[in-house]
Amino acid sequence: MLAFLGQTAMIIFVFVFIFHMAARREVSKDEDRGVESAPRMLKMKRITGQIMGVAGLVFLATLALGNDEADPKEEVVAQNDQSKEKQIEEVNYSELARTAANVSELEAALKQLDQSVDSVRLEGDLAVISYDSEEAVWSENTMVKEFATDSTKILEILHANPNFGDAAFERFGTLVDDKGNESESGLIKVLYLESESSQLNFKNFTDMVYGDAAKFYNNATGYAINGAIYTKIETELQYNMKWANDPKTDVYNVYF
Questions:
Q1: Which end of the chain is more exposed for a tag (fewer CB within 10 A), N or C?
Q2: Between β-strands 126-131 and 167-176, what pairing exists: parallel, antiparallel or unpaired?
Q3: How far apart are CA 212 and CA 177, in angstroms?
Q4: Phi and psi angles of residue 86, each rounded to the nearest 5 degrees, phi first
Q5: Is the pLDDT higher at 86 or at 14?
């Protein structure tokens, strides 16, 4: 019973911790911009912090009340499990992705590096990385920024792998119209031909994208962001981005 209670408390702690950190990040961004955070954001930060405190105390209480005398057999199993976990941690999935000989090996490595990667496929010579359409995001603004930073990391890996050249990144999702009808739509799509990615100095470019996500989109061969998403991102990011509506560069017309 105590073990179940402790596990439940830890699960709650981890789950709430994700929302708490997201709230803290948004509040911190508002403070950096010199604007006051929305009351609901401040409230979420406070409430999630309180829940984390309670869950943490419950977990510690279950540890204190548990049986200190562990079964020797259980200790051996625990040691074996820790050894296996250590071996898994030592696997360099980034290096595996850089040396992947085919799309299956690349997909397996990228999924270990980034849990938001749903699949990798080849369209001719083009490696298409699809992100999980069901992954929860804090806001449209966060989606556009994280898409850029995550894709930049993968683009650097693909650039270092001689078996792959051109790369595309896509995310689909469910949109609801004014009448309540749902439809699966492309949300963000970006194309990087090798001619563009080879010009990037990733040592500096990765940090630049972290500071301004627009640089990832503006340096691409082409990109498109669904209007339902684009209109809800912050004004500064919109201002820095070049809207890809030219048929010659629009990613929809390039390969989709």
A1: N
A2: parallel
A3: 30
A4: -65, -40
A5: 14
